Amino acid sequence: MDRSLEGSVASNVLGEDFEDCIFGGSSEEVFSKLWDNLLSKHGLGSSVWLKDLYLSRKKWALPYLNSSFCATMMTKQWAESMDNLFKIHFYRKLPLPKFIAQYFKALTQLREKELIEDYESRQTKPALLVDIPVLAEAAESYTRRIYVDFEYEYKSQLACLYELTAMNGTIYTFSLSSSKVHWDC
């Protein structure tokens, strides 16, 4: 971290503004405006570290990740997950060298956990609700966790009720409703 950030890091306002910048920008233009405001408000325009961070924004800023698939983790879930990770692995007055070492240790643990889940998901297949091609393909293609979500949505579609409401020649109009069935299997 460069020297221009030292006084600002302790500022809670900077943290709030940074969070607004990350989560508040609904488009690339809004994100850029929020970023520029952050730098000017806190006098951080000369920060080399923040300039480098901005150059890699397409890898971490939400408006640039719209075309990325992040399974079922929502922004709030991700933030809470990261907050929990930081509470477990870091403490407030951790010196920078130890922070970096802890960061890489935490990152390694997360990657190992993900690799184990991927391995287990690929080695065993979930029990299918019924043996039909769409579920078999989903079980083959998705991780277990994503398959469970897929299967739930599939079962929800099976629980839809439909009623013929109008006929006009060869055009049939149906009304769809959910039966409010709760699936526990």
TrEMBL record:
It is found in: Nucleus. Keywords: Metal-binding, Nucleus, Zinc, Zinc-finger. The keyword Nucleus applies. One of its GO terms (biological process) is regulation of DNA-templated transcription. GO terms for molecular function: zinc ion binding. InterPro entries: FHY3/FAR1. Its main location: nucleus. One of its GO terms (cellular component) is nucleus. The keyword Transport does not apply. Belongs to the FHY3/FAR1 family. Putative transcription activator involved in regulating light control of development. PANTHER family: PROTEIN FAR1-RELATED SEQUENCE, PROTEIN FAR1-RELATED SEQUENCE 10-RELATED. This is Protein FAR1-RELATED SEQUENCE.
